[in-house]
Structure to design on (952 residues):
């Protein structure tokens, strides 16, 4: 029951945030570009233009236009892309699978590398492997990510030619319209470099974070007590110490969502990956205003949803933080 | 506070700091003196010859001693563009930090000193901004800006826009640092003394508390410059930053990127190296500064 | 043969790059089955070091540099990891000082209890649960069943310590080492918890090493005490005897400082000076700078522990002389 109260509260917050975002988005759209010019071109006379303006409701007061916008948005109509001549939301949804799979690949790589690496470096403080990993992470923080990505493109794509460095390769269309790259070997090959590049942003930071937190946990009294109880060392490390490490990691992870979205755009640019980020930059170049605004709103929504999920996850892990509304 | 003599002595005894400082100085000099020492002026369209484009560095087959590091697609000498570009990157980086410094320090002072709902509001705002991440905010704002204005207008205002956007997006970092300093100082006796005399809040904040918060501000400033330069480079790489006719290091990397595949790797490589070296030097100096100015790590002879 | 025989135990810590300082400088003590020993001293005297050293739990970078801890004929310090884990929490249990940091905040009480039993016995979760609930009742924790699923922060300090005691007792150990078990608790609860520990030890014939700085508690609970100062034992013997007639000047000073010995309206006594840190120990007897009766010999040689007192001028001899 507490879960439902929590979700309702967050849903209300989300609606408010989306409201603000859509208001900002709409007022920008109002002032950017001229929808009429895009639709009709230069050769139409002034009179016809004014008529069309009236018809399209472009002369109505701001609030009226805005509520119309909201009304349509809630139904899934976020305007029509000038370039693609299709509903903006459709265009975005087309590109969504590509971005989603890229992020999924990156998160998978990042989790499966950073957690073991962080734990290893914490437990075996002086081993040579630890030294190598820590040096890499210092380097990783100093070199801008897009350079790492470019470096990878050059090294693995051009020089060595081991892995494809742009595009998605072959995709398979799943029944509900989702184009996936996971079902073909070609698709997966294309996914490798971009996923590694995207995960490389988080890796150094999280390896250091997990290592620091784990080291701190291993030095606590409760870990000492666990040892004094005669528990096997494996349980001491991975149940007692590690559970406490998860909390700050989830917190920091939650704060990185915005960064992740930004770097997805960067990665898609380097690898010419046909996802939402790439689409967004092209839309900016083409001054495809409805698409730009639609992207901003969709990204805002994603941001809000992910943050809610992270908060929820946190309450699951940390027994000291109860969901609001739960009994103490 | 560390004495000037102690500071200099610490500096001279740390090889990493000396190396980083030296490199940084070199790069700054290169940038400032670019109009005087660059082999060409890459902005002067009259000097460019399209026949000079995509020439490799001088030590390779096809190289030309006029262009030591080769040329890009427009025939501009890579060495020259790097010299000017570094200047632009530095200008934006330092400018942005000045903006975020002033804004963040002011807001941090107010939040820390006044407390109450102002503090709560500002910190909440800072939280939201930090979770949105500077890069994302900048991308969206610049995208809208670029979509709303034509290319020429955009090019004219790009530097200012970048400085202000990066500056405004990053104020939370300075604000938080200053705020925690203020919270620490607020309870000290000299503040009470000032209040008893009847000094107005603003005066207390500026003349008494502010000087004591400057140390941490100095520490993060250097690293923030590196951050700002990195952010600007990423934005320019995306095409949302400096345009290609007034390129920063990031824009240079962008314009050279497509040529990696066709073999003219030098157009991207050299700007990239300079960028990395610049950021590394700033980060190392910033780390060193943090250690030196940390009161807990004070050595006896300072 | 004594159940537990600690022989010349030394614990050292690195200090700087090449040297080490000793936190325990050669401690020896014996314990019989069911016996209750109090270990008394100021903070930094080495009491906790002794406790952790017994189970070979000295945290890095410290180490046991010399000595043996013989438990039923076997040296615990030389046991394999597997064997020593079989002793810890099973035949020798520990109770730490602050139950809030002893218990892992993210795991439920039940989990932390059951895992202990399962580490040492082949037993199902359900069986273990039953046993624990019975134990919790024994230590007077009301509504034990629902508490099993609670988290440490949901219980009061006193309740938490009772849980820790229950955990310590469940495996039916032969020895419990309690390191300042009541110091972190409210004054009103301290007596209760201490009484509980005493009762359980008596009923189950469990030996106890009680580490504390509180002479008052020690007087009530223990049969023998040992007084520690700067990493060494300076006096040891039957509790009652030592309290009535201390022989080491330090012990006398400690007793004098107790409020019950001060006359009405008189200032409380304090031993002048303070205990030196292990990094700056004076030569000879570590207590000599604060001792009224210090002689030239005391400043140069460390007095050996003879007949329960490590002093060149034990008080009964001094008084007899004067």
């Amino acid at each position: 029951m507490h879960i439902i109260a929590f979700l309702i509260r967050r849903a209300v917050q989300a609606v408010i945030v989306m409201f603000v975002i859509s208001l900002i988005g709409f007022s920008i759209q109002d002032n950017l570009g001229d929808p009429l010019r895009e639709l009709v071109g230069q050769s139409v006379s002034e009179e016809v233009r004014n008529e069309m303006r009236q018809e399209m409701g472009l002369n109505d007061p701001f609030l009226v236009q805005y509520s119309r916008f909201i009304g349509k948005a809630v139904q899934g109509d976020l305007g029509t892309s000038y370039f693609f001549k299709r509903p903006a939301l459709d265009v975005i949804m087309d590109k969504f699978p590509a971005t989603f799979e890229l992020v999924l690949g990156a998160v998978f790589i990042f989790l499966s590398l950073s957690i073991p690496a962080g734990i290893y470096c914490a437990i075996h403080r002086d081993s040579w492997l630890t030294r190598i990993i820590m040096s890499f992470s210092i380097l990783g923080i100093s070199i801008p990510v897009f350079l790492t990505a470019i470096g990878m493109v050059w090294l693995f794509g051009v020089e060595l030619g081991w892995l494809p460095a742009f595009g998605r390769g072959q995709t398979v269309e799943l029944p509900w319209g989702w184009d996936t790259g996971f079902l073909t070997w070609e698709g997966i090959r294309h996914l490798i470099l971009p996923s590694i590049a995207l995960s490389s942003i988080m890796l150094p930071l999280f390896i250091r974070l997990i290592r620091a937190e784990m080291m701190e946990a291993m030095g606590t009294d409760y870990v000492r007590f666990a040892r004094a109880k005669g528990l096997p060392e494996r349980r001491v490390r991975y149940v007692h110490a590690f559970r406490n490490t998860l909390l700050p990691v989830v917190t920091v992870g939650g704060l990185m969502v915005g960064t992740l979205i930004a770097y997805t755009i960067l990665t898609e640019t380097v690898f010419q990956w046909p996802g939402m980020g790439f689409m967004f930059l092209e839309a900016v170049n083409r001054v495809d205003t409805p698409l730009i605004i639609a992207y901003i709103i969709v990204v805002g929504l994603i941001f809000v949803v992910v943050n809610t999920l992270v908060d929820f996850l946190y309450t699951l892990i940390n027994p000291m933080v109860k969901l609001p509304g739960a009994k103490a | 506070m560390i004495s000037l003599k102690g500071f200099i002595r610490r500096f001279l005894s740390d090889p990493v700091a000396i190396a980083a400082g030296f490199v940084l100085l070199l790069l700054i000099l290169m940038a400032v003196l670019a109009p005087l020492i660059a082999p060409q002026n890459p902005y002067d369209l009259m000097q460019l010859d399209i026949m000079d484009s995509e020439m490799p560095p001088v030590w390779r087959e096809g190289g030309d001693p006029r262009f030591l590091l080769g040329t890009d697609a427009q025939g501009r000498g890579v060495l020259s563009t790097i010299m000017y570009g570094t200047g632009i990157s530095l200008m934006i980086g330092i400018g942005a930090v000045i903006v975020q410094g002033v804004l963040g320090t002011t807001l941090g002072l107010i939040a820390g000193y006044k407390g109450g709902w102002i503090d709560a509001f500002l910190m909440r705002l800072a939280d939201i901004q930090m979770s949105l991440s500077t890069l994302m905010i900048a991308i969206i704002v610049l995208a809208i800006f670029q979509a709303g204005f034509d290319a020429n207008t955009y090019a004219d205002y790009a530097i200012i826009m970048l400085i202000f956007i990066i500056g405004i997006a990053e104020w939370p970092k300075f604000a938080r640092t200053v705020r925690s300093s203020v919270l620490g100082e607020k309870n000290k006796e000299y503040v009470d003394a000032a209040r008893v005399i009847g000094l107005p809040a603003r005066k207390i904040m500026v003349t008494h508390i502010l000087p004591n918060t400057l140390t941490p501000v100095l520490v993060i400033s250097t690293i923030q410059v590196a951050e700002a330069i990195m952010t600007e480079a990423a934005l320019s790489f995306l095409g949302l930053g400096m345009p290609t006719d007034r390129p920063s290091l990031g824009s240079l990397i962008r314009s050279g990127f497509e040529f990696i595949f066709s073999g003219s790797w030098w157009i991207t490589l050299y700007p990239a190296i300079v960028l990395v070296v610049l950021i590394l030097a700033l980060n190392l100096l910033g780390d060193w500064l943090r250690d030196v100015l940390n009161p807990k790590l004070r050595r006896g002879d300072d | 043969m004594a159940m537990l025989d600690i022989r010349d135990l030394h614990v050292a810590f690195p200090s700087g790059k090449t040297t080490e300082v000793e936190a325990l400088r050669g401690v020896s003590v014996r314990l019989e089955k069911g016996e209750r020993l109090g270990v008394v001293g100021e903070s930094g005297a080495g009491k906790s070091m002794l406790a952790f050293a017994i189970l070979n739990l000295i945290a890095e970078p410290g180490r046991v540099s010399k000595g043996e801890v013989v438990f039923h004929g076997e040296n615990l310090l030389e046991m394999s990891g597997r064997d020593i884990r079989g002793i810890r929490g099973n035949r020798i249990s520990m109770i730490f000082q602050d139950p809030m940091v002893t218990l892992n905040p993210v795991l439920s009480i039940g989990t932390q209890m059951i895992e202990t039993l399962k580490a040492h016995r082949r037993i199902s979760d359900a069986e273990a649960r039953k046993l624990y609930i019975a134990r919790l009742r024994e230590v007077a924790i009301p509504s034990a069943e629902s508490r099993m699923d609670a988290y440490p922060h949901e219980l009061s300090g006193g309740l938490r310590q009772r849980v820790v005691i229950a955990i310590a007792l469940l495996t039916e150990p032969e020895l419990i080492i309690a390191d300042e078990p009541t110091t972190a608790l409210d004054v009103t609860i301290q007596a209760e918890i201490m009484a509980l520990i005493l009762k359980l030890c008596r009923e189950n014939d469990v030996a106890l090493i009680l580490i504390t700085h509180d002479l008052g508690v020690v007087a009530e609970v223990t049969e023998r005490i040992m007084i520690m100062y700067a990493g060494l034992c300076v006096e040891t013997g039957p509790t009652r005897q030592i309290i009535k007639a201390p022989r080491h000047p330090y012990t006398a000073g400690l007793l004098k400082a107790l409020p019950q010995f001060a006359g009405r309206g008189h200032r409380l006594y304090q031993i002048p000076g303070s205990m030196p840190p292990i990094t700056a120990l004076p030569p000879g007897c570590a207590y000599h700078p604060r001792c009224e009766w210090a002689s030239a010999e005391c400043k140069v040689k460390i007095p050996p522990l003879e007949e329960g007192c490590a002093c060149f001028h034990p008080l009964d001899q001094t008084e007899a002389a004067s």
Summary: The CA atoms of residues 82 and 288 of chain A lie 6 Å apart. The first strand of chain A starts at residue 172 and ends at 173.
